[in-house]
Each structure stands twice: as structure tokens, then as C-alpha cells.
Amino acid sequence: MELERIDKVVMYIWQHLDQELKLEKLAATGHYSPYHFLRVFKSVTGETPNKYITRLRMESAAHTIILNPERPILNIAMEVGYQSLESFSRAFKAFYSISPQKFKTSEQSEKLTIIQKRNLNSFIHKIIQASDNGQTPNHSNENDYPDVEILKLPEQKLITFQTYMVSLEKLTDGFKNMTRWATAHDQIEEGQYPFGMLNDFPLFTPLDKCRFLVCIPVKYKDLVTKPMHYLEIPPRKYSKFICNGDIDNIIRVMIYVAHQWLPEAGYKVINEMAMMIPINNPSKIPFNKNTYEILMPIVPA
Question: Tens digits of per-residue pLDDT, 204-259?
């Protein structure tokens, strides 16, 4: 029960990251008193609401700066809830130990090193080592990567179940929970599988805090019941490629697509959720043993 209520607050924070997030509103969203909310939120997430919101804002800002270095810092600051460049720069430097302006102009390997200091995901070391050895995305051999194509999807109405990438077992359990719910509510057809959405990018966010949405299409919002949530995704273009479930390999290919293939094709990635569509039944195959269609949201460059 507590987890469902805090998940509702977390979803609200994510959807309103560009706005002022007052303690009283967050507590009311989860139907808590402010005092009780502070205690329960930290117990569930391991962070205070303030630290949690700051981390999301900084990770989102760093992600945007890397993907779109031409964007003005002030615009990025306002997108993550800051009304002045001064307050954003102060928060960014406190979090990453470098100003957003210096971070923006740093070399790619330097950016990865800065992020690694905040994020202890083991695969980041491999990416940094490859970068130090001259194997940056801009110097990658295209034969080492899967084929990429561009497609456009219509509006999607989804039922979602939030879990975290803290372990492979937790991800597999998330797919099982969604399959059970969808089967009980006649929302899944034979041969249809739930798919995942990366609510955070593992390069920036520690895996134990990296939110992962397990999703399935739904026709009507009224069908949603706890602990599920309803989410609408507008019509959007995506780059699509096929990749196995090893997280370090997925990140390696995503970096190549974002920094080499897409710019050459006249597109760029936007800081929205990427989809992971399993080829095989994700309830029966361990997450890292499956194969996925990866869809990264894009716009013309």
C-alpha cells in the first residue's frame, strides 16, 4: 500500500519536473500528512523528497546538455524547474562539481568521467575506457553495430507498472506482474508481451534508482486499476534497432546511434523515454538473455 502511494507521488514528480514541487502538494498526492510523507518517502526511495527531485533534475539536465549541446543553458534550466541561471548553475555544480557551462564544453570522455563520479554503474568504466582508447562513438566501426531505421508511431495509450533496474530479477518480476494484471483484465492477446520504457537513462542514473516502466497498450483510461498507471505518448518518430539485453551493450549502441548515426541521417535524440520491446516472452526469459527492439525518440536536427 505504501509503495503504491509513493509510486503515485514519484509519477507526479516526473510529470511536473519543470514546476515548483511543494512538500504539501506532494504529500497530498500520496494522501499523507507532510510529516508522515517525509518519513515514508525516504523509507521507500532511500532519499528525501528534496534530494530525489534535485537528482532527477540534474540527471535530466546533464542528459539534455549532452544530447543537445547547442541548447542555451537557461532553457534547459527552466525545463527542469529552475527560474534563474544562477540558481541552476549553483545546483548543478553542487551535484556534479562542475558548472553547467564547463560541462557543456567538455570533451565526451570528460563528461563521462564527471558522470561516473556520481554514478557507480560498472558498465560506465567500460565506456570511459573505450573513449580513452580512441573508440568514441565518432570513431566507431559501423560494422560493429546493428542496422538502424526510422519509423513513426501513432499516439499510444498505455497502462504502466513502475519498477527499478536494481536487479534482473526485479525487472523480470515487473513483466510478470504486468502480464498477470493484463490477463486478469482481458487486456492482453495471445502472443502479445508487455514492453519496457526507460524512464531514466542508466548512463546518468544509478541502476537501483533507474525507473523502468513495464507497459501494455489499453483502449480506455477507465480500465486502469491500482497499482497500475495510465500514460499517453503523443505521435512521435523513433530510431529503431535490435539489441540483446546486456545493459552495457544497449548503452554502447544507444550512444553510437545518438552521436553518430542520427546526426549523419539529419536527426537528433530528445530527452524522452526510450522503448524496449522484447522479441521473446519477458516473463519466461531473464532480462539480459532476451533480445529487444530499442526505439529512441527523435526529431529533425
Answer: 888 888 889 999 998 778 877 777 888 999 999 999 999 998 888 888 899 889 88
> What pLDDT does residue 72 have?
96
Query: How does pLDDT run across 57-91, given as a tens digit for each residue?
Result: 999 999 899 888 889 999 999 999 999 999 999 99
Residues 6+ apart with CB under 8 A from 99: 89, 92, 93
**Measured distance CA(201)–CA(273) in Å, rounded:** 8
In three-state secondary structure terms, 274 is strand
E-assigned strand segments in 165-210: 195-198
Domains plus CATH for the chain?
2-106 (1.10.10.60), 149-300 (3.20.80.10)
Instruction: Using alpha carbons, select from 37, 39, 36 the residue that is nearest to residue 21.
Output: 37
**In whole angstroms, how far apart are CA 84 and each of 73, 95, 108?**
10, 17, 26
The SS3 assignment for 293 reads strand
SS3 69: coil
Question: In this predicted model, what pLDDT tens digit does every residue of 261-282 receive, in sequence order?
Answer: 999 999 999 888 999 999 999 9
Question: Each residue of 209-220: pLDDT tens digit?
Answer: 888 999 999 877
- All three cell numbers of 156, joined, read 499510444
Straight-line distance from the first to the last Cα atom of the chain, in angstroms, rounded to the nearest whole number: 44
Contacts of 4 (CB under 8 A, 6+ apart): 226, 227
Rounded CA-CA distance 123/146 in Å is 20
C-alpha radius of gyration, the chain, whole number: 19
